Amino acid sequence: MKKILTTGSNGFIFSNYIRKTLFDNKSKSEDQKYTFASIDKMTRGNGFPNIYQNKNHTFYLGDISDTHFVDIVFDQERPDFVIHGAAESFVDFSLKDPNKFIISNVLGTQVLINASVKYKVEKFIMISTDECYGQLTNESDSPWTESSPLNPRNPYSASKAASELLVQAASVSYGLNYNITRSSNNYGPRQTTEKLIPKVIKSIVEGNKIPVYGQGLQIRDWTYVIDNCSAITTVLEKGTPNEIYNISANQECTNIELIQKICNLMGKGHELISFVEERPGHDFRYAINCDKAKALGWAPTMKLPDGLEACVQWYLNNSWSLK
Q1: Could you tell me which residues come within 8 angstroms of residue 76 by beta carbon, excluding any fewer than 6 positions away?
Q2: 130 labelled catalytic
């Protein structure tokens, strides 16, 4: 079995990724393909249910920017692959405290690169974001490709772009074999309530106002988290060395349209919509071309209406996640 070290295993994407990968392997007749070790610093106290307790998963509580700690984990686990998903990730928080994002997203990435080079991992996958491209300024602009220039417009996306450059530099300087994935907005189970979809669900459940920046006309491209998880595994197994892959379901809608869809699914909440002052530098539209990932054999499976319905039902069935 190959061992995968993931970072951010308490977070939204990788709490789903570890579950999906181990479940997919278990459901097949073949032997278990992967085992996991993971790192998370657990800054959110209500996230403990996100940790997947499984005989093929060893969890380490700690900070990826701590060189001594990371070295101990690598020495103990000797991973074959590293999938680096840990990040400070909420734009609003990055505007208030950018230093935290530089420490975690930039320094933390370099610490992991150093350990990966030292322990000779087979492949390092950096999980990035379409926000590194900046913004599209109208609805008719063509989606970004992997060769589009990076133009981050807030501390969060700038820190992710910087971490990408560190990974690429390590390939030249130290021979690190890498892939980078840039995904569109993910949604699904186990996402924190700072994010738009669970925030809206939580607001409706509690009868609180649903804050909407400006008129809610910002356009986002939504991908169900399980589709992103399958794309990451496809890149791990089939990705060309030292290439970048966009990941998207190409399902765009405005924020206000998305909120109204959730209100319709829950049968209430339209009266709670409250328009608030626009966020500084709020990007207008994200859209990415993912033909390159599809050429590896991957394709998204979840349509937005079905994904939203499943998402709403999951949060209603798991009230702990809305605390």
Answers
A1: none
A2: yes
